[in-house]
Write a structure and sequence with these properties.
The complex is a heterodimer of chains A (about 625) and B (about 260). With about 625 residues, chain A is α/β, with parallel strands linked by helices. In chain A, about 35% of the residues lie in helices and about 15% in strands. The longest helix of chain A has 19 residues. Chain A is globular and about 80 Å long. Helices cover about 25% and strands about 30% of the residues of chain B. Chain B is built from seven helices and twelve strands. In chain B, the strands form two sheets. In chain B, strands 1, 2, 3, 4, 5, 8, 9, 10, 11 and 12 form a ten-stranded mixed β-sheet that branches. Chain B has a two-stranded antiparallel ribbon with strand order 6-7. Chain B is elongated. The C terminus of chain B is likely disordered. Classes of the chains: A alpha/beta (about 625), B alpha+beta (about 260).
Chain lengths: ~625, ~260
């Protein structure tokens, strides 16, 4: 029988002990003594969230296909266990072999959202590894991160030995091979390895760069320390998704994970080019898997997991070229095997409504539209080319199909937004209700319900809005109040409901998303004063963050509220995203002019990602 | 066709709760491609009924679930296919066809066998001390009045008629207390409640960390005219290609359970 890292009395005293036992179906068991590299792969949040992440499962598959590498998983212990482990000095452990993380060669942490940064420190600290990379010894694992937040990893740069920039399938194994060869020929030292790793494409070693600052606090320069270190680290892009790694036997957790289903990644990237959307920029270019690959993957994953549901994953599933063929196959196969199909991120039109009516209970389900902005003017500013007619037309078809619940997603606090733009949000919702009441009474299917949801916009690196200013929390709340006020004036106000998120986290995300290396001090301060699980409302404390900023001399207005000049050196300039600064500047100007840019399928806008020679843009013109 | 599956749960799987075990079996059934009957509607799931939830931290060699199948399959084949989908710590021990009118497992549970051992056997009282405490406080007592915590508050209860058999033994895990107690929906008793009476008689505090116990459920029983019958005994193995090892694993061959039926 496997021995667990935690004794019975501790397991029985914490919430959901199954989070910590491993042993799941399809988890990989190897004899650690037979491998050259032990890699602990961590999602720095609770098990149920972390287990739902596709990227980790892909890399888990990639590493474990190698007989000389053993990749195991690690998650953040929930605060109840975290406290016990800290008090009793129990080292953080891996799921599979329940081994201390500090005994691994690598600790890899995925950075999916800024609010996980205190959990990153929790994981490193509970592993009993020094928080600062500079304090680590030859015995400590190499601590590395990947994921979208590494595109501006500067606020957490101090805590990592290196970052994998871009898609891990491309060069991560080269880094492992370097490690193995240096260990084998005896030339390995931490410093020596990092210096050589920094020359492998896609590997950013922050300690190999000096950052200097201007008197006004902005970055003056980011300089490589040695001649062989590249000035910029190029994001790695997998050219051919059909031949990439993919978990045909995904792990099946015992406790219900957020994604308790087969996840079929149909494509990467997005052709749309919405100006607020970081994912739409940093996963370019649009690359699709072939129908044959997807069918084979779906079959294998359904039989190897026994999941009762399959979900398509992509930024915009409607843009997948062979969607009708894929859905025909899935609907047929899933009906036979009584498997549900979940279809997120579909544009509402006749085709998608027809498909959805086949796979869900129309009476119970609600339809989601994401106009993102209420006015056409604002939708042009953000390059969300969704005309009002399309939304109303889609709604009409939905109502005729029997749906009566509609969800609408919007953003508030977008750059260049006016009060009129905000007031257009409930007006659009009201027009959707009008469409409902145009249906003859006897054909209506109960009451119509339109739920408006707004989130506050956070400008992100490598988007045309990366220079845009944010505003203090009170101003965001004001905006939400305007929407609410306008909603009550609508003729169908009884059918409208409005939800918005608290703006505190928004501002904080803003500071962390566009911060530089100096912000690390505040993150550490928050952690040292008890801050973990900041992504969870019940544990988040704005006061703790504000105190930390004050103590550490971090100015929120400087990082969040300031409009940056397009000539400013940005902390993330050390990364070469493929998408060029010239393109982003051009898009920022076009946004200001309210001009829409055609999407990648309509014509190349010259974003710069043509250099990857992949997917939709092998013939792309130069930026 | 109704099928009753007996399964065992041990090791790290004691930390996987009842609802998660149900989900685990749902997925295992799908992987096994056994001809299980499913519910209708937009969220079909296997028709599955568990005899009784097993508490977190409790291991068991006698858990039961009833399912329905749409075409016959031999017990040997079904067990082989199902066990190919199990993780370390769960094993299906029997697959038996139930006569049509058998009440479902949940409705028929009347009693349960438990074996309680000390997490650290070093701290356990001797078998003699335990036997003496059991004799004084339970076997020879006219009534055992305890206060039972319920969802609505507390309730005074006489345990005596709800304890069908109890004894102390020396086992591989050290001194142990075995008990067969009521598990019916009306009068279910937790083994901890009985243990509390024994601790009181020994003048020991069950809350003392040294006294922490491990609970193992050995079997579940249905009531009837001839005494208690293991839930496993109500069905028949399907066809003649029966694995002789199955018999050894059924509760009827266990000494302790056998005694209960004889009484």
């Amino acid at each position: 029988m496997r021995k667990l890292a935690l004794p019975e009395d501790i397991l029985m005293s914490v919430d959901k002990p199954a989070r910590y036992i491993g042993n799941e179906w399809n988890s990989v068991i190897k004899d650690p003594s037979t491998v050259d590299v032990r890699f602990a792969m961590c999602f720095p949040d609770v098990y149920e969230i972390g287990m739902s992440h596709l990227g980790i499962q892909i890399l888990y598959e990639m590493y474990n296909q190698r007989p000389d590498i053993y990749c195991e998983r690690v998650y953040s212990p929930w605060p109840d266990l975290s406290k016990i482990m800290k008090e009793q000095q129990i080292p953080l452990f891996t799921m599979e072999t329940q081994s201390p993380v500090r005994d691994m060669d690598f600790l890899g942490i995925t950075l999916q959202y800024e609010m996980c940064y205190t959990n990153v420190l929790q994981v490193i600290d509970l592993s009993q590894i020094p928080l600062s990379a500079a304090d680590r010894t030859e015995e400590d694992p190499i601590v590395v991160a990947g994921g979208p937040c590494t595109y501006n990893a500067e606020p957490v740069a101090e805590f990592f030995d290196m970052f994998f920039i871009g898609e891990g399938e491309v060069t991560n194994l080269d880094v492992m091979d370097l490690y193995i060869s240096m260990k084998k020929d005896g030339s390995y030292t931490r410093e020596g390895f990092l210096r050589r790793a920094a020359t492998i494409p896609g590997t950013y070693v922050p300690s190999m760069y000096d950052v200097s600052y201007n008197e006004d606090g902005t970055v003056a320069a980011i300089e490589p320390k040695y001649p062989e270190i590249p000035r910029q680290v190029q994001r790695q892009v997998l050219k051919d998704l059909d031949h990439g790694y993919y978990p045909r036997k995904p792990i099946v957790p015992f406790i219900k994970a957020t994604q308790d289903r087969v996840v079929l990644e149909i494509m990467r990237g997005c052709i749309r080019g919405c100006r607020f959307c970081q994912a739409g920029d940093v996963y370019r270019p649009d690359r699709q898997k072939s129908l044959e690959t997807l069918i084979s993957l779906a079959d294998d994953m359904l039989s190897s997991t026994g999941h009762e549901e399959i979900s398509l994953s992509s930024l915009s599933s409607s843009d997948y070229t062979k969607l009708p063929e894929l859905l025909d196959y899935l609907i047929d196969r899933c009906e036979k095997d009584r498997i549900n199909i979940s279809l997120p991120s579909l544009r509402i039109d006749a085709f998608s409504l027809d498909v959805m009516s086949k796979v869900q209970d129309v009476r119970k389900s609600s339809l989601t539209f994401a106009p993102e902005a209420g006015s056409q003017r604002m939708r042009n500013v953000i390059n969300k080319g969704l005309p009002k007619e399309d939304i109303l037309h889609g709604a009409a078809e939905a109502f005729e199909g029997g749906w009566q619940k509609v969800k609408l997603y919007f953003m508030l606090g977008l750059p260049l937004e006016t009060e009129e733009d905000m007031r257009e949000i409930p007006r659009l919702a009201n027009e959707i209700c009008d469409v409902y009441f145009e249906i003859p009474k006897e054909q209506r299917n109960g009451k119509c319900q339109v739920n408006i949801s707004t989130s506050f916009f956070v400008p992100k690196p490598f988007t045309p809005f990366q220079w845009a200013p944010m505003m203090p929390p009170e101003e965001y709340t004001e905006k939400a109040k305007i929407v609410k006020d306008e909603m009550h004036k609508q003729s169908h106000s009884k059918c409208l409901h409005y939800q918005w998120h608290h703006p505190d986290v928004t501002v904080l995300e803003g500071v962390l998303a566009r911060g530089d290396r100096r912000v690390a001090k505040a993150i550490r301060h928050v952690y040292e004063h008890g801050g973990i699980f900041d992504a969870w409302t019940e544990f988040f404390s704005m006061e703790r963050w504000m105190n930390a900023f004050e103590e550490c001399g971090i100015s929120v207005p400087f990082y969040a509220y300031r409009e940056r000049s397009v000539d400013e050196v940005l902390p993330w300039d050390v990364i070469d995203m493929g998408i060029t600064k010239n393109f982003l500047k051009r898009e920022w100007e076009r946004a200001k002019a309210g001009v829409v840019t055609p999407n990648c399928a309509q014509g190349c806008a010259g974003c710069g990602c043509g250099v990857f020679e992949a997917g939709i843009c092998p013939t792309a013109k130069k930026s | 066709m109704k099928i009753r599956i007996r399964f065992e749960k041990w090791g790290v799987m004691q930390y996987v709760g009842h609802l998660d075990m149900m989900r685990f079996f749902q997925k295992a059934f799908r992987r096994s491609h056994l001809p299980i009957k499913y519910t209708e509607g937009f969220n079909p799931h296997p028709v599955m009924s568990f005899a009784q939830p097993l508490g977190l931290g409790v291991t068991s060699s006698g858990e039961y679930m009833d399912i329905e199948i749409t075409e016959p399959v031999t017990s040997a084949e079904a067990l082989q296919r199902l066990n190919a989908e199990m993780v370390d710590g769960v094993r299906a021990a029997s697959w038996k066809e139930l006569p049509d009118k058998t009440p479902n497992a949940m409705a028929s549970v009347a009693a349960a066998d438990y074996v309680l051992t000390w997490a650290d056997p070093e701290n356990a009282p001797s078998e003699e001390t335990l036997s003496e405490a059991i004799r004084k406080a339970i076997t020879e007592a006219d009534a055992i009045c305890v206060t039972k915590e319920t969802k609505k508050g507390t309730r005074d209860l006489d345990l005596k008629p709800l304890i069908y058999a109890i004894s102390a033994q020396q086992t591989e895990e050290g001194p142990a207390v075995s008990m067969c107690i009521s598990a019916s929906s009306a009068d279910a008793v937790k083994p901890q409640l009985v243990m509390q009476v024994i601790f009181d008689a020994m003048g020991l505090d069950p809350q003392d960390p040294k006294m922490r116990m491990h609970i193992h459920r050995a079997d579940l029983y249905a009531g009837g005219e001839n005494g208690l019958k293991s839930l496993d005994s109500m069905g028949k193995d399907v066809d003649e290609c029966k694995d002789p090892a199955d018999d050894e694993n059924t509760a009827d061959s266990r000494d302790f359970a056998g005694k209960v039926v004889d009484e």
